[in-house]
Amino acid sequence: MAHEPATSDELATVFARMSGLLLSEETVGSVLRLIATLAREVFPECRGAGLSVLDPDGERITKAATGELVERADRIQYEMKAGPCLTAWAQRTVVRIDDLATDTRWPAWSRQTAELGLRSVMSAPMVAGDVAVGAMKIYAGQPGVYGPREESLLAMFATQAAVLVANAKSYADTSRVSTALQASLRDRDVVNLAKGILMGQGRVDEQTAFLQLADTARQRRRSVREVAEETSRATARRLR
């Protein structure tokens, strides 16, 4: 028999906690671990909850799970390249298995997962905008635990989770871009300083000074930045 789903107030509290985590700029891993823990709180019957995402190599992995049971069930799915979580992710729809002992959609996966002591499974895609960023799943040890109301609840939860994951990724991407931009600005400043030195020494224009740096870099098989740094350091030593 399915449990009574969380009330709207309870869900609002859960989502507020998740939003608070985003505001505190936690890492993606921390976000995902909290989501998995909160999923288990919302679905107290489940024996485990977890989230699947892509790793840097484009492989599907369980980034966060409430226990080894979830990781083992997921691992079977990844090895077989078939199962409810992968299907939910690919087709962007909630997938529910009422009883692994009788479901015929993924018989090999269902059989091995049932051997772990699991009977009910539900997976929901994590979609942010038009991008599927992963999938959430919950496992129960008894058959017939979940129903249509739980499907809607998990879909709501997965939507909130997807937004957090996407925002956390955007924050990380922005940080990387910011770091790259700062490095680019430093490179520009070093090159500009070296150009100014060459312009003063040889009474040449800016374009000619840059071409001198580039030609030296080519001859020495160094970057323009490295040659610019050497030029600046050499001038500083002469001025001491």
Automatic annotation (TrEMBL):
This is GAF and ANTAR domain-containing protein. It comes from Amycolatopsis heterodermiae. The keyword Transferase applies. It holds the Pfam family GAF_2. InterPro entries: ANTAR, CheY-like_superfamily, GAF, GAF-like_dom_sf, GAF_ANTAR, WH-like_DNA-bd_sf. SMART domains: ANTAR (SM01012), GAF (SM00065). The keyword Manganese does not apply. The lineage of its organism: Bacteria, Bacillati, Actinomycetota, Actinomycetes, Pseudonocardiales. Keywords: Kinase, Transcription, Transcription regulation, Transferase. Residues 171-232 form the ANTAR domain. It comes from the Bacteria.
